[in-house]
């Protein structure tokens, strides 16, 4: 029985987490002047579901808080209460608190009842304000003034511009009470919203920017994510992916056997096998698509990050999200959250200037951070672009020298930007809780590389920076060209192949004993796969073997192999699960006959010839002179 | 061997016995904890891996898992590393990782009481004594009990990137 309860607990926690995220998102989208009834209703339902569930499991902290929230929302959706920025802020803070409580219950930690009490009181303040229960209100008002003020000061002022003078803050606090004071007035529902905007016009304004931007960003994906879904354990999906991989292998084994078959039935067998091949391919594609999720799963949390951070730093930032529908492997998405969050915080903190500075340099007061995802061939490109001040070359160089990194002054901009990925590197002069500790960019780079991605920086002084991340579309499958070298078969990802040729003798040139291929009016360095893979009985003569022209993200080269075996879609198997990473190899796959073939990692192969290429290019220029 | 097994059965109630799978490398008898054995297979063609030490033969496909194969004869420099239809691969499951070890043959399952295991001497040959559980005299043969878990995950074998992989998992 106890085990059963545990099971339900798990489901409840997961669902509540989702409800909270939904509430947060909807709250951010709310149009304060003219709230959408359906949206309010959804928020109400989410709060109600959590309340119901927590009541069943006796999770009183959740029940208490959601109950008050529900009351508030109920009034709001019935139009009995007008929404305002303070209320939405409060509700967002409550959502945050609910998340904390949920985590406490999940990890069986102590619940901070005191702060929950405070939160409930604070919420009741809003509620009492609108209920017009006079006697009660007057009483409750005085008693609750101090905790409310404290609570508000905590949740409210901290997010304020730090440069705001103290008197302004006091004024703000006062304004809040003033808004409450006329609660005896039956018309207060209209009076309440009017008060805060008057008192804090700048704040209201910046809130509106955030609301506007988040709406712009979120509206399309929300409409797309229809609720016709079921919850499936990822392990089940993964084992399905694995099984389908096995079916594909068995199917190609059948194809091989079928081609040897000789009888009257041969045609029929061939037809059936061809049918099977088509079906397995479709199953495979369908199963692979289960693992794909739209990028909006990650992107949707950023409007909140931007909103909180920009108001904390007193900056005005508009977040533009594009390409939220781009699909990416689920395993990648989970690992993208932290690096992207860090980069966005980084852009707002370091990139975007204070409004005054922006106006002074002739830019719009509102900074722009753009988050774009798109698919390019077999890659997903994600860019975080800001129109801030750009990276400061001198500052970075100075800092690097301070850190004892040995560099010359005339290195390229690209190399300078790459310095910020070094551990412990931050040019922020003041350490804030946002950034400046210098832990981060190196972790960002490492995280992205651990999922097979790359990150590059483009930056123009005074105009902004762009952090570009390139990721593989999926970790699980690749279109490959099977090539043979000696008695071994390797798979080269098809997206990297330009063409395959058998060169004429005249096309092979020599440069300090390195072979070059002359084709398409270019000299291509030749990489001998048999040398890299230590295979002895391979063909070393390019004119009787095959050269595959390969393009990696940075370099082009020709790969010498014995022969092409055929083109095939292969399931990528992880080598590191039972073994370790091998240089130049991205993974392994299982061929039709059940044997293992290694999948080449073109990027790391191209790194192996870095020095050679540079030498060649340098020498090439020489010969032109 | 039979007498030994029956002897041990008589003692079953008195002391808990540990079971070992004994195998042969060259002329020497070894044994490893049977709990780490996943299955026993014949040797099949492996896919070679570049830049690996010679005792790592390559990888094979074990029902969808890519599994490395280590030839212990090459590692310990005992016997001749020949591969024929009698060559045996013991598939081990150590810390949820699968690895195959090539041996000359598998002989028996032996049950040992703890007091039957003698401590290993400090001998500075290819076999580091930290990979030994002990030695057991059985029917005039000396059985070398291997601490297979430690051996497989050791840096010396270099099967895993200890620092990075451990932190990831």
List the helices and strands and how they pair.
The complex is a heterodimer of chains A (625) and B (169).
Chain A: H1 2-29, H2 37-57, H3 60-77, H4 85-106, H5 113-131, H6 134-155, H7 166-180, H8 188-199, H9 201-224, H10 234-260, H11 266-290, E1 292-294, H12 296-299, H13 302-313, E2 317-322, E3 327-329, H14 330-351, H15 355-360, E4 367-376, E5 379-386, H16 393-402, H17 413-419, H18 441-450, E6 454-460, E7 464-472, E8 477-485, E9 488-493, E10 497-501, E11 508-511, E12 514-519, E13 522-528, H19 529-532, E14 546-551, E15 556-561, E16 563-571, E17 585-590, E18 596-600, H20 602-608, H21 610-624
Parallel strand pairs in A: 2-4, 9-18, 13-15
Antiparallel strand pairs in A: 1-3, 4-5, 5-7, 6-7, 8-9, 8-16, 10-14, 11-12, 12-13, 14-15, 17-18
Helix pairs in contact in A: 1-2, 1-4, 2-3, 3-4, 3-5, 4-5, 5-6, 7-8, 8-9, 9-13, 10-11, 13-14, 14-18, 16-17
Chain B: H1 2-10, E1 18-25, E2 28-33, E3 37-42, E4 56-62, E5 65-71, H2 72-76, E6 88-94, E7 97-103, E8 105-112, E9 132-138, E10 141-146, H3 148-152, H4 162-168
Parallel strand pairs in B: 2-10, 5-7
Antiparallel strand pairs in B: 1-2, 1-8, 3-6, 4-5, 6-7, 9-10
Major sheet attributes of chain A: 6 strands, mixed
State the domain count of chain B. 1
- Can you count the helices of chain B? 4
Predict the CATH topology of chain B: OB fold (Dihydrolipoamide Acetyltransferase, E2P)
The first-level CATH class of chain B is given as Mainly Beta
The first-to-last residue Cα distance of chain A is: 85 Å
Global outline of chain A? globular
What structural class do helix, strand and pairing data of chain B support? alpha+beta
H/I helix tally of chain A: 21
| Poorly predicted sequence stretches spanning 5 or more consecutive residues of chain A | 131-225, 430-438, 613-625
DSSP strand count of chain A: 18
Q: Say which CATH homologous superfamily of chain B is assigned.
A: CheA-289, Domain 4
């Amino acid at each position: 029985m106890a085990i059963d309860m545990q099971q339900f607990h798990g489901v409840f926690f997961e669902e509540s987490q989702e409800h909270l995220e939904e509430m947060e998102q909807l709250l951010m989208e709310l149009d304060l002047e003219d709230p959408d009834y359906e949206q309010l209703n959804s928020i109400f339902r989410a709060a109600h579901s959590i309340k119901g569930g927590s009541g069943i499991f006796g999770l009183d902290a959740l029940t208490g808080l959601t109950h008050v929230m529900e009351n508030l929302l109920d009034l709001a959706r019935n139009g009995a209460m007008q929404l305002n920025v303070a209320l939405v802020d409060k509700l967002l803070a409550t959502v945050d608190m609910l998340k904390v409580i949920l985590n406490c219950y999940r990890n069986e930690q102590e619940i901070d009842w005191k702060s929950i009490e405070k939160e409930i009181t604070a919420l009741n303040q809003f509620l009492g304000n609108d209920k017009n229960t006079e006697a009660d209100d007057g009483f409750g008002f005085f008693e609750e003034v101090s905790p409310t003020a404290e609570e508000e000061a905590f949740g409210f002022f901290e997010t304020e511009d730090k440069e705001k003078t103290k008197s302004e803050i006091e004024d703000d606090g006062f304004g809040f009470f003033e808004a409450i004071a006329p609660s005896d007035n039956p018309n207060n529902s209209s009076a309440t919203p009017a008060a805060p905007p008057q008192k804090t016009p700048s704040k209201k304004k910046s809130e509106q920017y955030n609301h506007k931007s988040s709406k712009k960003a979120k509206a399309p994906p929300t409409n797309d994510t229809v609720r016709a879904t079921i919850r499936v354990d990822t392990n089940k999906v993964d084992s399905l992916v694995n099984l389908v991989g096995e079916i594909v292998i068995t199917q190609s084994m059948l194809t091989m056997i079928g081609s040897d078959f000789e009888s009257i039935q041969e045609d029929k067998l061939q037809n059936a096998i061809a049918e099977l091949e088509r079906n397995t391919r479709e199953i495979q594609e369908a199963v692979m698509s289960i693992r794909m999720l739209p990028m909006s799963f990650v992107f949707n949390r950023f409007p909140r990050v931007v909103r909180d951070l920009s108001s904390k730093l007193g900056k005005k930032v508009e977040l533009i999200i594009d390409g939220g529908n781009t699909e990416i492997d689920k395993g990648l998405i989970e690992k993208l959250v932290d690096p992207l969050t860090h980069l966005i915080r980084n852009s707002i903190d370091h990139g975007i200037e204070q409004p005054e500075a922006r106006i002074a340099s002739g830019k719009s007061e509102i900074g722009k951070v753009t988050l774009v995802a798109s698919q390019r061939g077999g890659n997903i490109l994600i860019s975080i672009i800001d129109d801030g001040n750009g990276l400061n070359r001198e500052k970075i160089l100075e800092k690097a020298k301070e850190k004892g990194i040995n560099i010359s002054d005339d290195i390229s901009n690209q190399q300078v930007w790459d310095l910020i990925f070094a551990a412990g590197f931050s040019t922020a002069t003041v350490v804030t809780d946002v950034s400046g500790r210098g832990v981060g960019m190196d972790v960002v780079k490492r995280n992205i590389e651990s999922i097979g991605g790359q990150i590059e920086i483009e930056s123009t002084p005074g105009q902004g920076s762009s952090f570009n991340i390139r990721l593989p579309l999926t970790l699980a499958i690749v279109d490959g060209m099977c090539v043979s070298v000696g008695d071994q078969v390797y798979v080269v990802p098809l997206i990297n192949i330009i063409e395959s040729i058998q060169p004429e003798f005249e096309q092979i040139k020599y440069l300090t004993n390195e072979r070059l291929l002359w084709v398409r009016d270019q000299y291509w360095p030749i990489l001998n796969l048999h040398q890299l893979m230590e295979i002895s009985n391979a063909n070393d003569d390019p004119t009787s073997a095959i050269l595959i022209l390969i393009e990696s993200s940075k370099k082009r080269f020709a790969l010498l192999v014995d022969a092409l075996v055929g083109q095939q879609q292969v399931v990528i198997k992880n080598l590191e699960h039972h073994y370790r990473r091998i240089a130049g190899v991205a993974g392994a796959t299982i061929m039709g006959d059940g044997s293992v073939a290694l999948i080449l990692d073109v990027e790391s192969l191209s790194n192996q010839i870095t020095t050679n290429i540079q030498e060649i290019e340098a020498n090439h220029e020489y010969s032109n002179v | 061997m039979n007498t030994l097994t029956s002897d041990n059965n008589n003692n079953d109630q008195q002391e808990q016995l540990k079971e070992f799978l004994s195998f042969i490398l060259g002329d020497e008898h070894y044994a490893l904890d049977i709990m780490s054995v996943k299955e026993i297979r014949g040797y099949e063609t492996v896919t070679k891996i570049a830049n690996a030490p010679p005792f790592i033969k390559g990888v094979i496909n074990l029902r969808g898992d890519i599994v490395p194969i280590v030839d212990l004869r090459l590692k310990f420099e005992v016997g001749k590393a020949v591969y024929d239809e009698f060559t045996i691969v013991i598939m081990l499951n150590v810390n949820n990782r699968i690895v195959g070890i090539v041996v000359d043959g598998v002989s028996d399952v032996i049950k040992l009481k703890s007091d039957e295991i003698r401590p290993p001497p400090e001998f500075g040959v290819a076999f580091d004594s930290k990979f030994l559980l002990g030695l057991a005299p059985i029917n005039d043969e000396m059985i070398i009990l291997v601490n297979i878990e430690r051996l497989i995950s050791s840096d010396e074998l270099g099967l895993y990137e200890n620092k990075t992989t451990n932190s990831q998992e």
